Protein: ABC-2 type transport system permease protein
Amino acid sequence: MILTFFNHELKSFWRSRNTGKSIAVKIFLGLMILYLLACVIGLGVVLDKLLEGLFPHDDLVVAFCGILLVYFLYDLVMRLQLQELPTLKVQPYLHLPIKRNKIVGYLALTAIFSVFNLWPIILFTPSIVKIIAPENGAMVAWAVWLSIIAFSIFNNYLALYIKRRSNLNGWIFLVVGVLLSLVVCGDYIWHLYSIQHVSNLFFGNLIKMPVLVVVPVLLAVVMFFVNFYYLKANLYLEELSSKKAEDRKSSTEIPFLGRFGHIGDLVANEIKLILRNKRPRSALIMGLFFMFYGLIFYTQKAYGESMKVFVGMFMTGIFIISYGQFMYSWQAAHFDGILVSKVKFKDFLRAKYILFTAVSTVAFILTLPYAYFGWRVVMIHFVMYLWNIGINTTVVLWFANFNQKRIDLSKGASFNWEGVGASQLLLSFPLIIFPYVIYLPFYLLHRVDIGFAFMAIIAIVFIATREYWIKQLSKDFENKRYKIAEGFRNK
Structure:
């Protein structure tokens, strides 16, 4: 039956109306993967030399054992962001008299064929041959190699399980992201423990007692069956949809928005669109992850205050940038309905402004703990928060009138260039350059505080004159609406 599923997927691919485009995308992705594969092979060949340079005072075996769990921690983070779920491929079979175990087994087995499971084998095998095998023998080398494969499979199914649970409850992904961030901070910033030491403790004992390879193998098997039975319990569309319906009802009925009347309803609908669909939801989740972006720069003395302008703008406005750059592609599927509805486009724009302001406000509040690095950091964040809701929001909505590429909301964000066009590339330049056009002259004159005050004043003026900008954006949209609608109709 598994071969039948695979055969049907091949036929579905070749018979698709977008086969030409899909082949071009897959060729491009294939070339990228081959390039990365070559890089990983090269890194694996010289890994022992790199370890000698990075850990000159440690034994090479100790250094190698110490990096393994560190790698798998970051491997899990990358999988949560980039690895796709093989879930929609078997939906046409759910109403047929096919046993659940066969469908779930197909989903579980196809999940193993991920490029993420190939990286550790290619990266660490040369070092196992050159470092572990000569001193400890073939049996120990095989045990280490098998444990690496087992940890990779464990990460594979753990990431899939978290992402599937997150489809029903988005808070799970957020909690996992916070926990992973705390684990990393606990080691590299707060120095409460050492992941490298824990890794060396396990793999060092594994070299002495190869029987310990049973531990990662059991973890992989347990995670496989946890994923298997969760899929089996939630396989049918009726069960998934009923659970999602309950979650949506509890998460999108926001009484506060009722105060804004018709515009509040539009904002609520936008929130529902974000929470119910993969790609816009990933933009929100990515924004939450980037709240830790400041830890990269604020902990390094090499970065000056000018970098804080960029970081502050990025953290308080990442949602405006990542979600706003695809306006109005998120509504592409029902854009014709919007054009003929009674909804005034000015109200539509007001709803966008309210949404961006609300999310950016929450983002600014989440960055308040950066006061640990000084209250001046909070001041810069506040100025850039005003800049985002005043100027960047207007710039993003203006560029939206040039976007004519539709987006399939159900598709994930990783390796997905649907809806990406020239307007998205051009949008990044004014968003990054405009703040520095104001800031740098004052910086060169050593009047930085006056520069920040001037930026805040300009942002407040834009906020105060928002109705004027809404009117101008609406006029520009009226001239381009039919061209935008025609672009959204092209699938």
Notes: Residues 237-252 have pLDDT under 50 and may be disordered. The CA atoms of residues 94 and 413 lie 26 Å apart.
